[in-house]
## 1
Amino acid sequence: MNSYFGTGRLKPLASTAQGVVVGKHDGSRATLYVGSLDDPVVFYHEAAHEALFTTTIDGSILAVLWHAIDRLGITDARLLKDVSATARALMVSSRFAHEVVATYYGIKMVDDKPGALALAKLPRSYRTYFKTASEVIDPWFKSSFLQVRVILALGNFTFRSPFARRFFQDHSSRSPD
Ligand SMILES: [Zn+2]
């Protein structure tokens, strides 16, 4: 686990079933725990987090910031404080959207019956994440083939905020260091 998620710091995007952590994603890598290695719902849940961290601009910025904090050994205290504050703000504001996409995608990528069984085992918060997406998507798209594409499209749209554009506009006049 990255040190960024150590004691007293941010919690990684962890998924639980019946009170047990079954998978997590820390921005750099997904982890499936023993006991859930053969569970396709957990696999697809973490795969959705992976897709958001690697294929969207906001997810990529957060992953890069976490990587910089934990792996690049930033020694400038002020820079580390600023980068950490930005990463924390991005995580706090995007956790709900991350989990909505991952939970819905994980359930919809499996057949109806195992999906319903998995949904019933999830904590209330994760059932709320699922419901948030299903109430918007399911009335309009009846096949899971389309539903998973819609949630990925919505995820890509949601994680393409003006944040990156503002950042590059603010810094476009500066020459690279
Ligand atoms: Zn998750």
## 2
Amino acid sequence: MYSKALLLALLPTAFGHIGLWHPSAYDFNGDGYTLVVPMSGLSFNQWWFHGNLAKKPTGAPMSLPAGGSVTVELACNKAYTSYGNQGDGRTACPTDVGSYHAGNPIDPNQIMGCGLAIAYKSNANDVKQEDFAIFSINTNCVRDLKTVFSVPAKMPACPGGKCICAWFWQGQSSANEMYMTGFDCNVTGASSTVAIGKPAPPKYCANGGCVTGPKQPLYWANSNPNVVFSGDYYQKPSYNSKWGFQNGAQNDIFSGGNSPPVSNPPSQQTSFISLTTTAPAAAATCAWAGHCKGAACATDNDCSDSLICSGSKCS
Ligand SMILES: *[C@@H]1O[C@H](CO)[C@@H](O)[C@H](O)[C@H]1NC(C)=O
């Protein structure tokens, strides 16, 4: 097992990514780093809740004030959050700009957004992929340690005073991989009792045909994907308008169900593809899983060890 000191020593290298840190998070009391590791080519049990379902939160659920906002801390290591002692109070990763997966220096065009999802169940073990609905988006994410999410005013109260939430993200300048930090949450100050509609899988829609209404998170790059990804670097699943997500509170999720665009056959709404063909590197082994020989990349920083990025592939 790595010591915390060793993990911190590794941070300035390519081993830098981002996670959500809060006492309500699953694995909040882990080694302070593993929580941020991106997920690629994993089995369902390995990626769902980052494999941390058994590592129950010790803190109270995160409060989500209906019609208000919640500020979460996103960082490449717990040490840089208010729960550690090495941060500057504003930077998500003071030691490694590569952790943002958005170029060096950070290129605003490579900031892809992140989202918060909620399931109206009180036991994380009961939550299924199709239960999560994205209720808030911050399209300027990840840049800052403290990231603000607006909470829809119509969010109803949670059953038994507790819901299950998760934070989702992916980078642009990175291999095909996704991030998920699960946490307990609780809607406070609720005035509406209308439930969130049944969330549908999002679709790439830069050319039109966006899924409207409640949407599931983007599950991809691992087993059980719910979205169709073309494999095009610039069409990666992302929490912005390219995939039908607008910045801020998702106020269109109480519609009692999504309304798929009429121009698309229903079969496309529910089709699933295996991503293994677009991520041949998943099978290759190296120190940084998912970033081995053959993995998609934009810069050398996206590739493990001494591998370089050549022709958008690590080699
Ligand atoms: C969740 O919020 C409701 C409404 O404010 C409150 O009554 C309940 O005690 C909260 N649950 C927890 C676990 O704090």
